[in-house]
Amino acid sequence: MGVLTLLHSCKKDDDGGQIEVRDPVEVEAENDQDIRDYLSSHFYNYEEFEAAASGELDDFDYKIVIDSISGENSDKTPMIDQVRDTVIPIEIGENETLNHTLYYLVARQGDSIAPKVTDSALVRYKGFRLNDVVFDRSNIPVWFNLNNVVQGFYEFMPALRSGGEITVDEEDGTYRYSGDYGVGVVFMPAGLGYYSSQGSIPAYSPLAFTIDLFRVREIEVDEE
Predict the structure, then answer these.
(1) Residue 199 contacts residue 179 (beta carbons within 8 Å)
(2) Containing structural domain, residue 192
(3) Residue 223 falls within a domain, yes or no?
(4) Alpha helices per DSSP H over the chain
(5) Residue 222 domain flag
(6) 4: pLDDT strictly greater than 80
(7) SS3 of 192, please?
(8) Which of 31, 139, 145, 217 is most buried, by the most CB atoms less than 10 A from its CB?
(9) Strand 2-3 to strand 84-93: parallel, antiparallel, or no bridges (unpaired)?
(10) How many domains does the chain have?
(11) Does the predicted TM-score (pTM) go above 0.85?
């Protein structure tokens, strides 16, 4: 269970302004509707993933590409019909919890190890808002301790499995990926992300991450 602590009626942002502390119930409901609206009006390149899995498409980079359903794409299947969801209770006060819904899609499972929150994972990722503005990304794989990332990110990770091979061209440093590594995308409300923190992300913003999982470093935890 996550913990969402609201200590003050407002707090300062990085520019010295005030951020209004909102009712978490209203924020969650608003975020959930925004996410569902996005999923209902957007699709991902599922046909390419299907063609690659069947052997009909050989030269495919296994990157999730999301676009709006309109014009020549009007017949595409919306992500709302393809995602799974899980409900995560978050503490919002003493003896009070609020359910937050995480939506996720596994485009390719991977064929090795599913990480735990206590593990480290080698991932390539892109973080974006629902207006498709990218706020963070790594085009080359990086290691994360999963207990150091936002809750929505680490709650999703066990849905994927690691796998594949990574090679680096000695001449130009280009990374090449092969094999069956996990590929997915997760959509989270602010309560599972950065909530009222500010920076490149407005306060109370729902977020999404595309994630490729290559390696898992299992970490043993002492249980006393």
Answers:
(1) no
(2) 2-217
(3) no
(4) 24-41, 46-54, 151-156
(5) no
(6) no
(7) helix
(8) 31
(9) parallel
(10) 1
(11) yes
